[in-house]
Specification:
286 residues, alpha+beta, D-amino Acid Aminotransferase, Chain A, domain 1, D-amino Acid Aminotransferase, Chain A, domain 2, nine-stranded mixed β-sheet, six-stranded antiparallel β-sheet, 8 helices, 15 strands, globular, binds 4'-deoxy-4'-aminopyridoxal-5'-phosphate
Amino acid sequence: MSRTVYVNGEYLPEEEAKVSIFDRGFLMSDAVYEVTSVLGGKLIDFAGHAARLARSLGELDMASPCSDEELLAIHRELVTRNGITDGMIYLQVTRGNPGDRDFAFPPASVKPTLVLFTQSKPGMADSPMAKVGMKVISIEDIRWGRRDIKTVQLLYPSMGKMMAKKAGADDAWLVEDGYVTEGTSNNAYIVKGNKVITRDLSDDILHGITRAAVLRFAREAQMEVEERAFTIDEAKAADEAFITSASTFVMPVVEMDGTAIGTGKPGPVAARLREIYLDEMRKAAI
Ligand code: PMP
């Protein structure tokens, strides 16, 4: 069945939705995005995603296409029209269509392009992967230096996922100057003793919305949180490892470059944080 998607003020069947070939999102990757999960028909941490979108737009001097209230209404309308119980809402804002190709940013009269669509994933919170854990490989982080901005420049993350697949793994962790930055599409964590360790916030990583919530819950549960860079060797010697993202929540990592982490099975800290995260976020969903 065809989805109903949103393009610049209109709800349309997906086959009828169109964006210009001159759109800067298409020609220049001049665009930012957000992915918000839906559980039980409700949005998970919409406020967090709306705030990060505003920040990404601000950092790139890109106009905001509409207010947060309007964005929320569009998200909800798409959930309803597409009958989404569990899944994701993908949102993208581009610098619009100047009618030609030019490196210079277009004048303010060129309006941003706003596109949203749904991805239905029934039962996504019961992913079998959460029970067995993920295998990851390490690869060099050769992305640009503003990873804190959620741009659609996803070619290297895509290549990283393909490298992982080729190596028989599920994903890749990116390494720069000997230290893990993050996963291809998630934030990376290790657990040593009672300590949850994850890279500190800077331009080097995306400031995960799930990361912020999970660290808050970890502290509330009296876990010790250390925000600092760590190495792949530390990850291999850790008791546990896991990732977080809006669509995977908290997902255990059980193998790094072919070496089992801890027992080689999902650990108790990741399991507990996943449970708390899902419980609390379901309660707060709107
Ligand atoms: N880092 C990167 C590079 C990502 O692409 C993502 C997910 N988009 C994340 C971290 C996790 O962010 P969030 O928890 O907001 O989904």
